[in-house]
């Protein structure tokens, strides 16, 4: 999902404005996809109303929570190391309680609580409203667990706090769960069935962000193109809805247009899209509104039809290429980014070459590329042998990464001499004399500060680049200010 987030982001400890009446301290870290970071904002909001202020100092915390990712083994190993750290501190601070949230919590609940005894509570992605009750159980000396998956919970009634916010960009969740049973993926088992959030609560959240001065929102979900609101219920049950419900239903292109029309001075992004569910109507909405960013994250996972079928990806190579052609025709200059898995069970050298040839066809702007790691509980783990040698996986992965770097450089070079609109969101990491921001295509742009400010939209003429960054000079404010 994302950003289009990395395999396992370095954990972020998150802080919100404290309430003077609260007398307990919460330390929370998030790993993995953008949904986990969004969920942490919901958790902090719930606990803020139950006596907890957040802290960045682990040693002084009464409650330590880690919001976890199970998408790859590396992510789980990172979190296990953090749990070791927490428990080392806990041996000194005996009042401290440690809890695990998110996907890893759901998958390893018994192991964490009963076998390893390294946490005090385990809370799945749909049970965060039960946190106050679970903490009461912990205070009374009992282990606490709730990982029950819901078919209704969207947290649409929770006003998220903006943790470690730059006050410029924010995530807004629109769907939860996933119905696509890709054989390599744990998400359907850890986050449950796909359901959509009521559109008016989405609009109200964005209105609040706009009034607070935010300039960009990302509509977020495991599969945003499947968004469908018809008065409640799962998408699979839409055929049973009443005629009135069907007539007033809101799908993703309707929602995207509502947001773009209502907030013309805010940039709109979305993630993640599934190729089988992205319809041409969405592309026309993106092309129609200048405040919808010209960037689509379109995970493909493999360029081989045979491997796509083994993965239970419900699109073919040709269907994917046709969709890419439509994107490039309807939205000229649109950036397309990818997720790619190499070394999936039974993958041959010919399958690998199909992936490389697909990359040559699309020439992605950027990508997230991984060697396959077997995830317990998935169909691939239960039915397929992980038979591609590790050295072969790593060699193929390096070839994919090398090719993507070539394409990323080409994509960046195409902007040299062009003027792009940039939303300034921070000071450059490499120089305090420069600002950093992103253009519509989600590419990082760096330029001298001059008299501009964070949060402003400026036009920047691009003069040079690397494979990951555009460099230039500001030439004035854009019309979005």
UniProtKB/TrEMBL annotation:
<feature type="binding site">
    <location>
        <position position="178"/>
    </location>
    <ligand>
        <name>[4Fe-4S] cluster 2</name>
    </ligand>
</feature>
<keyword id="KW-0819">tRNA processing</keyword>
<dbReference type="InterPro" id="IPR058240">
    <property type="entry name" value="rSAM_sf"/>
</dbReference>
<feature type="binding site">
    <location>
        <position position="185"/>
    </location>
    <ligand>
        <name>[4Fe-4S] cluster 2</name>
    </ligand>
</feature>
<keyword id="KW-0808">Transferase</keyword>
<feature type="binding site">
    <location>
        <position position="69"/>
    </location>
    <ligand>
        <name>[4Fe-4S] cluster 1</name>
    </ligand>
</feature>
<feature type="binding site">
    <location>
        <position position="182"/>
    </location>
    <ligand>
        <name>[4Fe-4S] cluster 2</name>
    </ligand>
</feature>
<dbReference type="InterPro" id="IPR023404">
    <property type="entry name" value="rSAM_horseshoe"/>
</dbReference>
<dbReference type="InterPro" id="IPR007197">
    <property type="entry name" value="rSAM"/>
</dbReference>
<dbReference type="Pfam" id="PF04055">
    <property type="entry name" value="Radical_SAM"/>
</dbReference>
<keyword id="KW-0479">Metal-binding</keyword>
<dbReference type="GO" id="GO:0035597">
    <property type="term" value="F:tRNA-2-methylthio-N(6)-dimethylallyladenosine(37) synthase activity"/>
</dbReference>
<feature type="domain" description="MTTase N-terminal">
    <location>
        <begin position="24"/>
        <end position="140"/>
    </location>
</feature>
<dbReference type="Pfam" id="PF00919">
    <property type="entry name" value="UPF0004"/>
</dbReference>
<keyword id="KW-0408">Iron</keyword>
<feature type="domain" description="Radical SAM core">
    <location>
        <begin position="164"/>
        <end position="411"/>
    </location>
</feature>
<keyword id="KW-0949">S-adenosyl-L-methionine</keyword>
<dbReference type="InterPro" id="IPR038135">
    <property type="entry name" value="Methylthiotransferase_N_sf"/>
</dbReference>
<keyword id="KW-0411">Iron-sulfur</keyword>
<feature type="domain" description="TRAM">
    <location>
        <begin position="413"/>
        <end position="476"/>
    </location>
</feature>
<comment type="similarity">
    <text>Belongs to the methylthiotransferase family. MiaB subfamily.</text>
</comment>
<dbReference type="InterPro" id="IPR013848">
    <property type="entry name" value="Methylthiotransferase_N"/>
</dbReference>
<comment type="subunit">
    <text>Monomer.</text>
</comment>
<dbReference type="InterPro" id="IPR020612">
    <property type="entry name" value="Methylthiotransferase_CS"/>
</dbReference>
<dbReference type="GO" id="GO:0046872">
    <property type="term" value="F:metal ion binding"/>
</dbReference>
<dbReference type="InterPro" id="IPR002792">
    <property type="entry name" value="TRAM_dom"/>
</dbReference>
<comment type="function">
    <text>Catalyzes the methylthiolation of N6-(dimethylallyl)adenosine (i(6)A), leading to the formation of 2-methylthio-N6-(dimethylallyl)adenosine (ms(2)i(6)A) at position 37 in tRNAs that read codons beginning with uridine.</text>
</comment>
<protein>
    <recommendedName>
        <fullName>tRNA-2-methylthio-N(6)-dimethylallyladenosine synthase</fullName>
        <ecNumber>2.8.4.3</ecNumber>
    </recommendedName>
</protein>
<dbReference type="Pfam" id="PF01938">
    <property type="entry name" value="TRAM"/>
</dbReference>
<feature type="binding site">
    <location>
        <position position="33"/>
    </location>
    <ligand>
        <name>[4Fe-4S] cluster 1</name>
    </ligand>
</feature>
<dbReference type="InterPro" id="IPR005839">
    <property type="entry name" value="Methylthiotransferase"/>
</dbReference>
<feature type="binding site">
    <location>
        <position position="103"/>
    </location>
    <ligand>
        <name>[4Fe-4S] cluster 1</name>
    </ligand>
</feature>
<dbReference type="InterPro" id="IPR006638">
    <property type="entry name" value="Elp3/MiaA/NifB-like_rSAM"/>
</dbReference>
<dbReference type="GO" id="GO:0005829">
    <property type="term" value="C:cytosol"/>
</dbReference>
<dbReference type="GO" id="GO:0051539">
    <property type="term" value="F:4 iron, 4 sulfur cluster binding"/>
</dbReference>
<keyword id="KW-0963">Cytoplasm</keyword>
<keyword id="KW-0004">4Fe-4S</keyword>
<dbReference type="InterPro" id="IPR006463">
    <property type="entry name" value="MiaB_methiolase"/>
</dbReference>
